[in-house]
Amino acid sequence: MLEIKHVSKSFFGFLALDDVSMRVEKGSFHALVGPNGAGKTTLFNVVVGRYPPDGGEVRLEERRTSGLATYRVVRMGLGISFQRSQAFLSMSVLENVMLAVLAHQGRSRALMRSFSAESEAKTTAYELIGWVGLADKTETPTAALPLGDLKRVDIAMALAGKPKLLLLDEPLAGLSRSERVSMVNFIEGLLRGLGITLLFTEHDTDAVLRLADRITVLHQGRVLAEGGPDEIKNDARVIEAFLGEEYAEG
Amino acid sequence: MKARGWLYLIAATLLAAPWVLPGYALEVAIQVLILALFATAFNLVFAETGLLSFGHAAFFGVGAYTSALLMQRASWPYLLTLPAAVGTAAALALLIGFFSVRTSRIYFTMLTLAFAQLVWAVVHKWYAFTGGDNGVTGLQPGQLWSDPHALYYLALLLTVVTFLLAVRLHLAPFGYALRAIRDNQARAEAVGLSPFGYLLAAFTLSGALAGAAGFLQVAWQRSAFPDFLYWTKSAEVIIATILGGAQSILGPSLGSLVFVELGAFVQSHTEYWPLVLGLVLLGLVLFLPRGLAGLGGARAGD
Ligand SMILES: Nc1ncnc2c1ncn2[C@@H]1O[C@H](COP(=O)(O)OP(=O)(O)OP(=O)(O)O)[C@@H](O)[C@H]1O
Ligand SMILES: [Mg+2]
Fold first, then answer.
1. In Å, how far from its chain's centre is CA B264?
2. Which atom of ligand 1 is nearest to the CA of A218?
3. Distance, CA of B66 to CA of B214 (rounded, Å)
4. Res A243 pLDDT > 60
5. Which residues are placed with Cβ below 5 angstroms of ligand 2, an ion?
6. Residues of B in contact with A80 (CB under 8 A)
7. How many CA atoms lie within 13 A of A231 on its CB side?
């Protein structure tokens, strides 16, 4: 589904990604983990075309995405929810999701129709909003939403284009314990049901072990290990790297 | 019901004005309409995309010069020069926008200013074609358009059309897409919107309409001057817009009314218009950050 080949990226001489290769299999839930600053978000940004890689390439179903503009990558079937999720804050939940739907249908350029009369997009948007559990907040301005709900809006927008592959950067960050549980259940239930391939990052180890079929560990811009949850849990290098990190922080 | 009542009242006032106002006041009213058209066009970009253009005088001026030169050199009837004025202004906006809309906010403002000053310098110096700093004077827009009543209604028509277009855009998917790009460009790209095309289209439309304002100015003044393209003209439209309230669809028109009327009043009594204007702006920033329309509370057009 997604193939990342020998990707490198540096910022002002600092090597944030160093020859990273990995592949995400169709239908899998693939976690990308690693300590802060490991390069996870940077790798996502390369995948979505926000940063051109210094070397290597990314292919989505054989088609090259690296170096393309984000909106083109999105049109190739990628859904994106950022680490710092932010909706279009001047609009309601419904308007946010409707706009995402219209954009994906190539209908957002219209000048002579009224946005509010786009009944087809509205129906789709209601469905998406229902999926993410915000049916009672469709008219709420997104500027007034708590972070947990914003993430859900973000995911609804990411799903609007019926993506083949969904990228979620830290879907649980900033959520309370109970919100985390419901978000994990939500991701599990919804995305498995839809048959969407998922690539996500997360610091919450329990959530990673519960959701992921496969885990890639990134450390200082390099792939440290890759395998199933059980392999990774018991991988000596991973334990060492993370322990080292904790000691360093303490 | 209440809103509709207001609408009828405003429409009646606007239609009756030429028959009530004495000659000089009618001339001022035409200026109000021209600036209202210009400001509404400017605000298409400012309010919907968040980009502050400091170069809109270029479109106003090029529209004016197109109209003036076609009348003077090719003897075109005045009204026929409208599509040409709008067309050249649109073409210039497309060109300037192509190089500007990609840049981030402050660079956009500086670039539009720089481009506009460049166009001004050309118009100001190219004596053989534009008449240089003498401008194009002594134009005869024909008997009909020399009558301020007719010109008033023409200005009213074009202003209302522009206003309706702005409302249309605000409520259309296109307007929502522009505001999405304004709110969060990265997020907009992540839902598949390509900002460049949207911003360029909005900028071009806005420039084209500013050209129509320039076209009207030519008949009002029977001349075109390099001043039309100078940065102070760009500042004028920004001030009028912010004075009225950029967040309201009626704001730019309201601001234009106050700006022009106040200017005419103050200038007829003192020579300290810039000073008064400075004080008005200061008061505005301190006490009315959302402009005069902010006094009314609700956001019109939402
Ligand atoms: N635009 C940028 N300019 C300069 N340095 C950057 C930029 N983006 C990321 N970096 C650096 O690259 C490194 C990797 O950052 P990245 O955000 O990818 O880490 P991460 O794994 O996502 O961390 P976290 O878990 O905290 O989100 C960091 O040292 C960061 O400071
Ligand atoms: Mg990150």
1. 18
2. 21
3. 9
4. no
5. A 40-41, 83
6. 190
7. 11
A150 inside 8 A of chain B by CB: no
Sign for the CA dihedral angle at B296, B298, B299, B300 comes to negative
Question: Over the stretch A18-73, which tens digit does the pLDDT of each residue have?
Answer: 999 999 999 899 999 988 888 999 999 999 988 899 989 999 998 888 888 999 99
CA gap B13, B10 in Å, rounded:
5
What is the maximal distance between C-alpha atoms in chain A?
62
Categorise residue B24: left if φ over 0, alpha if ψ from -120 to 50, beta otherwise: alpha
**Helix then strand then coil, % of chain B, to nearest 5:** 80, 0, 20
Q: Using CA atoms, how far apart are residues B62 and B109, in angstroms rounded to an integer?
A: 19
Amino acid identity, residue B28?
Answer: V
The secondary structure of residue B133, as a DSSP letter, is G
Helix or strand or coil: residue A165?
strand
CB contact under 8 A, A69 and B189: yes
Q: Give the C-alpha separation, A160 to A126, whole Å.
A: 11
Structure tokens at B286: 């301190």
Q: Are strands A214-219 and A222-227 parallel, antiparallel or unpaired?
A: antiparallel
Residue A128: which of A196, A175, A174 has the closest Cα?
A: A196
Instruction: For residues B196 and B53, give the distance between their C-alpha atoms in angstroms, rounded to a whole number.
Output: 16
Do B217 and B228 touch, CB atoms closer than 8 A? yes
Q: What is the pLDDT of residue B302?
A: 40
The C-alpha atoms of residue A151 and residue A169 are separated, in whole angstroms, by: 10
Q: Which ligand is nearest to the CA of A35?
A: 1
Q: Which domains are seen in chain A, by residue range? A: 1-77+163-250 (3.40.50.300), 86-162 (no CATH)
Q: Tell me the C-alpha distance between A116 and A98, whole Å.
A: 9
